Amino acid sequence: MYNPKSNKAEEFIDNQEVLDTLEYAENNKNNIELVDKILEKAKLRKGLTHREASVLLACENKEKNEEIFALAKEIKQDYYGNRIVLFAPLYLSNYCVNGCVYCPYHAKNKHIPRKKLTQDEIKKEVIALQDMGHKRLAIETGEDPVNNPIEYVLESIKTIYSIKHKNGAIRRVNVNIAATTVENYRKLKEAGIGTYILFQETYDKERYERLHPTGPKHNYAYHTEAMDRAMEGGIDDVGLGVLYGLSTYKYEFAALLMHAEHLEAAHGVGPHTISVPRIKKADDIDPSTFENGIDDDTFAKIVACIRIAVPYTGMIISTRESKECRERVLELGISQISGGSKTSVGGYYEPMAEKEESAQFDVSDRRPLDEVMHWLIDLGYIPSFCTACYREGRTGDRFMAICKDEQIHNFCHPNALLTLKEYLEDYASPETKAAGEKLISKELELFENKKMAEDVSSKLKLIHSGKRDFRY
């Protein structure tokens, strides 16, 4: 029985409710009167139910699809403006006891080099990332209680936050590790993490169990209920995501939104972020063997419909996707991207030798961070390294209240300009610096609050003179 307030995975992600939703969407995909009604509701910027959003995703009417994309662009602009937050993943270890058939870290893979960073190696990697200009990281490990216990993760977080190299500092560490206990989530919270991220991979229980035949990750309920335990452990911000290509995209889309609705109903706050990865080639993994892959047009529509359905959430796309694909979906809903990424264990401090290559997936966008920065600036976006909300206590329901009221730009916009200025002063190439300074001047002229514009201008001058880490 479907119950979004339940703490049981098979009730808040009820399989029959997903199937009924897909049937409803299929039966109404060309019901223009209903589509119009849903779009009118969406224009209120309060979100949609999983059934309503599934109708939009299924809609085949060209004119209505154009309206869907246009509305997604408007909502993205209203909530997140032209800011794009940047981060980098840092893989700490690829030791893993699970048997996930889509991931090269699976335990049966005997030819991928296994590696675990020491604390000294983590320091070198973090300094290399700081020298690129990064301020926020997403740390990742395989699931292995012997090689990657929670104590290792906590020690690594402490190491990362402790490193202050030149003007560099990692100001926010997000964590993407396997589902764990309330006690361990409490320890992560005490360690000062930002967002706890865990991809569901697939919400289709039968397929989930088939794709995870061995290891603790085989337990569907324990994995799916992880966010509830994280929130019970005091973590304010959680990030959802599915790996598109493992099951049918319409099933995953509806179930993902049901998960977001569950978090709202049970905890009063929805997901801080939603990630949209697609399965990619990696070591012994061939994505063509998975029959549910999606093309770029479908991918773009998924992004647009998530943005409309969950207008407040941050949306993340990684370097799994090409420059062209990323450029297309930026305006449709994406608010965070990785840049200059390595998906191997290590690799930032010194290039990985081919025989030591340990990447979790092939990177499609291999451009260095400075090139990504220049690209975003040329497109009219403000590349941001802002971490102010996390450090000012604007997390969980406090962040959501501001965001849902469309007031978050009052903080994020000036903070984006300040962190961009830091990057331009400390790390940018001459070409990127010139383009960035021009963008900052243009953005200052657009401030409606002239007092705020003057205050930002004064802080920009202080940054130019050597001061760092201002925030609103």
What does this structure look like?
This protein folds into three domains: 9-76, no CATH class; 80-393, Alpha-Beta Barrel (TIM Barrel), CATH 3.20.20; 398-464. It is 48% helix and 9% strand. The chain has helices at residues 9-12, 15-28, 32-42, 50-58, 62-80, 119-132, 150-162, 182-190, 205-211, 220-224, 226-232, 249-267, 296-309, 323-330, 369-378, 388-391, 396-404, 409-426, 430-445, 450-464, and strands at 83-93, 136-141, 172-176, 196-197, 238-241, 273-275, 314-317, 336-338, 382-384. Strands 1, 2, 3, 4, 5, 6, 7, 8 and 9 form a nine-stranded parallel beta sheet that branches. Helix 4 runs antiparallel to helix 13 and helix 15 (369-378) packs parallel to helix 19. The mean pLDDT is 93.
SSE arrangement:
Blueprint: H1 9-12, H2 15-28, H3 32-42, H4 50-58, H5 62-80, E1 83-93, H6 119-132, E2 136-141, H7 150-162, E3 172-176, H8 182-190, E4 196-197, H9 205-211, H10 220-224, H11 226-232, E5 238-241, H12 249-267, E6 273-275, H13 296-309, E7 314-317, H14 323-330, E8 336-338, H15 369-378, E9 382-384, H16 388-391, H17 396-404, H18 409-426, H19 430-445, H20 450-464
Parallel strand pairs: 1-2, 1-8, 1-9, 2-3, 4-5, 5-6, 6-7, 7-8
